[in-house]
Design a protein that fits this description.
- It contains 16 helices and 13 strands.
- By secondary structure, it is α/β, with parallel strands linked by helices.
- The strands form 2 sheets. The chain has a 7-stranded parallel β-sheet with strand order 3-2-1-4-5-6-7, with helices on both faces. A 6-stranded parallel β-sheet has the order 10-9-8-11-12-13, with helices on both faces.
- Helix 1 links the parallel strand 1 (4-10) and strand 2.
- Helix 4 (100-111) runs parallel beside helix 5 (134-144) and helix 9 packs parallel to helix 10 (246-256).
- The two termini are 38 Å apart.
- Bound molecules: uridine-diphosphate-N-acetylglucosamine and uridine-5'-diphosphate.
- The site of uridine-diphosphate-N-acetylglucosamine has 24 residues, from helix 1, helix 2 and helix 3.
Length: 383
């Protein structure tokens, strides 16, 4: 029997980190011929992931522009993808998460009447403008997709509420598969700063911030809170790898340049990021991926947003929604910096998002759906 042609499509840093272990899984499964297509919605930040995970795409649409708009990303992806699908003739297309690449990839496959699988399906806030445009992207892909690989039972329940009950599998999140390959006790960073930080005696706070709905006033308030944290607590070292978006670069530098013990650095490679997270004291972020990774590494997270589509770690007590107001962010950070009991209560390793076997489950579910396996995989349970 001929192997199944499964095309993975991704374009941004987080999609790449979360699809990389799946591309690697396909490479060792003889029943599957993996085809890798990148849109390069992100260029440098994508290439960094491709290098770390040793991936060479079969197709590269190379669409990124400085300060690109949602319309240009979506239309360039859609047009480029049409040609790729006609050439590659996949049996199944897999998209990931909720970016513009995700939405355009799913739509392009649908136009070619190719079956679509959605990895990281079923995450919802219920607010179509927050996160923007991710909530609408993933909801629309939910309608297009034939197979839905949900990280958690909560995600499956979200789909069920929308009437989506067929082709749904609870697999865990592939980000935990990736994390298991990158974190090492003896890891050496490429910069002197990260190798020489005094992780044992200083409180190293890892920060990221990039969401579109935080552009403008919310990002300004976040930067003010971070500056206050650094100025108030002399034992804090704040490490902030700044996203390459010009909007974010400007906000971060305007808000934090000159603040004491604040290190604004280039984006980190995925393995550096994971190992820095494993050593830091606290994470403050509006990132989706960091909210999933930090709990697995036992690090408390203050989420710099008003809502989250990842409530599992909030329920487990290791992630806290801090909002985007300066006062609420500062007060929560102060509690974790100055009150050992508050810190200990949140610094527990929990694994609500996966056990490191999501890619094997997704692959087995695909093979079962295509009649190449007798049984569906056993679902992920957070236990
Ligand atoms: C995108 C996703 C968001 C995801 C984020 C991950 C959409 C609409 N948004 O947002 O869901 O959380 O990626 O980081 O899909 N840039 C570079 N080099 C890079 C990457 C970005 O220069 O390697 C700059 C470019 O000027 C680009 C800008 O950043 O125009 C914004 O990139 P874009 O993909 O539009 O938005 P993100 O905020 O990164
Ligand atoms: N990440 C990275 N380097 C950085 C910042 C983040 O490798 O400088 C990783 C992080 O560990 C996670 C993913 O990128 O796996 C999250 O991406 P991002 O925050 O850009 O997007 P989101 O998850 O919010 O969509």
């Amino acid at each position: 029997m001929k192997p199944l042609k499964v095309m993975t499509i991704f374009g941004t840093r987080p999609e790449a980190i979360k699809m990389a272990p799946l591309v690697q899984e396909f490479a060792v499964r003889p029943e599957i011929e993996g085809i890798c297509c990148v849109t390069a919605q992100h260029r440098q930040m994508l290439d960094s992931v491709l290098e770390i995970f040793h991936l060479t795409p079969d197709y590269d649409l190379n669409i990124m522009e400085p300060r690109q708009t949602l319309s240009t990303i979506t239309s360039k992806c859609l047009l480029g993808m049409e040609d790729v699908m006609k050439k590659a003739q996949p049996d199944l297309v897999l998209v990931h998460g909720d970016t513009s690449t995700t939405f355009a990839g799913a739509l392009a496959a649908y136009y070619q009447k190719v079956m679509v699988g959605h990895v990281e399906a079923g995450l919802r806030t219920g607010d179509k403008y927050s996160p923007f445009p991710e909530e609408m992207n993933r909801t629309l892909v939910g309608d297009i997709a034939d197979l839905h690989f949900c990280p958690t039972v909560t995600n499956r329940d979200n789909l069920a509420r929308e009437g989506i009950t067929r082709g749904v599998f609870v697999t865990g999140n592939t980000v935990i598969d990736a994390l298991k390959t990158t974190v090492r006790q003896d890891f050496q960073f490429s910069t002197q700063l990260l190798n020489e930080l005094d992780y044992a005696h200083k409180k190293v706070i890892l920060v990221t911030c990039h969401r579109r709905e935080n552009y403008g006033a919310p990002m300004h308030h976040i930067m003010s809170a971070l500056r206050r944290v650094a100025e108030t607590f002399p034992d804090v070292e704040l490490v902030y790898p700044v996203h390459l978006s010009p909007v974010v670069q400007q906000a971060a530098h305007e808000g934090l340049d000159g603040a004491p013990r604040v290190h604004l650095i280039e984006p980190l490679t995925a393995d550096e990021m994971h190992n820095l997270m494993a050593r830091c004291y606290l994470v403050m972020t509006d990132s989706g991926g960091l909210q999933e990774e930090a709990p697995a590494l036992g690090k408390p997270v203050l989420v710099l947003r008003r809502e989250t589509e990842r409530p599992e770690a909030v329920t487990a007590g290791t992630v806290c929604l801090a909002g985007t107001e300066e006062e609420s962010i500062f007060a929560l950070a102060r509690g974790l910096i100055t009150e050992p009991a508050a810190y200990a209560g949140m610094a527990r390793a929990v694994n609500p998002y996966g056990d490191g076997h999501a890619c094997a489950r997704i692959t087995d579910a695909i093979l079962w759906k295509f009649g190449r396996r007798d049984q569906p995989p056993q679902e992920f349970s957070a236990g």
